[in-house]
Amino acid sequence: MGIGQLAGFAGATVVLVGMPGPNNLYISLRSLTQGRRAGVVSALAIETGTLVYIVVTALGLATLVQASPTLYTAITVAGALYLAYLGLKLLKAPANDHSADIQAAPLGRVFRDGVVVNLLNPKAALFFLAFLPQFATRGADPGQLRTELLLLGVGALLIGLALDLCYAVGADAVGRRFRGARTTSRRRNLIVAAIYLGLSAFALITAL
């Protein structure tokens, strides 16, 4: 793999990973509503899900998903339903008239939800199914191909983590004002829930 090929991969990865999607949205919302610490935990959770994709791709299991449009659609629908679940959970959350944080979930739950959001994210699945393998050496033996896919995956993970942390820090800066605004927690719940449900609806429309 040449320097030019790696540079092209890095540049394209920055663009694709940096584009707004379920992962970036999840990190931003957690950081907006619970602060930088929750945003950083969310970023680590997202990249933990990326580790799973890296292993699956290197083992060749991604080929099975790529060959089955039904399975890919099922993953997309499951991701959309999980986003809808997060939105509905916010709608049912108790609220008061004070400027409390939106669903200040324990960090363990924040991490768990982040991993699931990434694993069921059609954008992440498409990246590892269709984009990353294009940069591996054509005609390479299985061992070399597996090594290249692992290295490319780790590179994508590091780029993704850097971008995720930028989202977390930036959203926290905005969130300090948002969290301190004189609005009811119920109203804030409605705003964030609407974002989750809107993204869920978009994913379902795309899948079906």
Automatic annotation (TrEMBL):
MF (Gene Ontology): amino acid transmembrane transporter activity
Q: How does it sit in the membrane?
A: Multi-pass membrane protein
Cellular location(s): Cell membrane
For whether the record's keyword set contains Transmembrane, the answer is yes
Keyword hit for Transmembrane:
yes
Instruction: Provide GO CC annotations from the record.
Output: plasma membrane
Q: Which domain of life is it from?
A: Bacteria
Q: Which UniProt keywords apply?
A: Cell membrane, Membrane, Transmembrane, Transmembrane helix
Spans through the membrane: 6-26, 38-65, 71-88, 115-137, 149-169, 190-207
Q: What is this protein called?
A: LysE family translocator
| Organism name | Kribbella sindirgiensis
